[in-house]
Amino acid sequence: MKSLYRILTNPLVYSIFFLGFASGLPLALSTATLSAWFTKAGISLMGIGMLSLIGQPYVYKFIWAPLMDRVIPPFLGRRRGWILITQILLIMSIAILGFMQPTEHLKLMTGLALLVAFFSASQDISISALMADAPREEERGLVAAAYITGYRIAMIVSGALALIIAQHWGWHVTYLCMSALMLIGVVTTFATKEPTVIQPKQHDFYHDVIQPFTEFFSRKGLWVAIAIILVMILYKLGDAFTVSLGSTFLLRHLHFTLTDVGTMYKVVGLTSSIVGGIIGGLLMTRLSLFRALFIFGILQTVTNLLYMWLAIVGHHMGVLAITVSGEAFCDGLGNTAFVALILTLCNPKFSATQFALLSALTAIGRVYVGPVAAEMVQQLGWTWFYFWCFVIGLPGVFLLIPLRRHLTRQA
After folding, report:
1. 153 neighbors 24 (Cβ within 8 angstroms)
2. Residue 411: inside a domain, yes or no?
3. Fewest Cβ atoms nearer than 10 Å: which of 123, 252, 332, 370?
4. What is the pTM of this model?
5. Boundaries of domain holding 198
């Protein structure tokens, strides 16, 4: 109890919570909320599916992560300096996006949304590195839970609240409000203490760019490292398919309103995810990392079948509530364990680059499944599409079993 009390009273946990908020806010604005905007504007299903490609910076952020690992801005330090720079750029780009119309500026909006995703992915690099640098091993579960809780609350705001604001006051006001809320992250950045990490004395291309990658493979061994990379890609893949066309499924196929989606799909769902994340963090003070990953992974995969049930039942608020809350709660459990795994696998000397690499692998599904999911829906229909979301989620969970003893910072 004393250990848990010490963790809960650690200022870092609360800083990570608000930085998680700043990290989560831009994501929906360049994906789900933008998808809803395009849906209401009459953009085609395949066009909306292609929007997921805007998230490509989240996949390739490990390319410029070494730069952010080694170059120290002249203010606030290595981590906080980069966080502040990206937050200012996000405030400006989100605000500009709000002054456009999909029917008139489709290509320009897509390009600007890609820029928002780039700045957001860059912010994530330094926030994630700050998390990896700072917490002790026993703190990682709750630090991960704090980050995910802040992240999910931000997604309620930029997903649910944004849709409600859009229905009553329009999309322009929505994006300007979301831009202003990024100031929460700016204030937190100034208030957070910069972690102290011993840096390598040598700074050249090999030590700055190559070594962070080779160190991970040499520490784990080639085949174990490859298997871990497969887990990173597959563990959340079923969920990525499930949520890729969620707004279109509810708005266009089941004919729910923006307010319905905002209050039920976003508020209820993301609140359940937050509760799941918090409970997951608390459970991880008792469970081993492997057990948490396996149990939570099975739950998050099975609950994808709830969307299959909803597709069969049709427009029904009660079934929507059960589906969204059940799937999101288990998704919160899985996310907490997964972030804790990534924190555990990183070497503090290369935390920005290694966290960026590992977390980028998880983004592959979220980014590239959109066009595939749209084609699957056209060929299979919504009911069988959600069944296959369940099947796709299983391999990443069962691959954990042979890796059980390798899920540590050491070999």
Report:
1. yes
2. no
3. 252
4. 0.66
5. 2-406
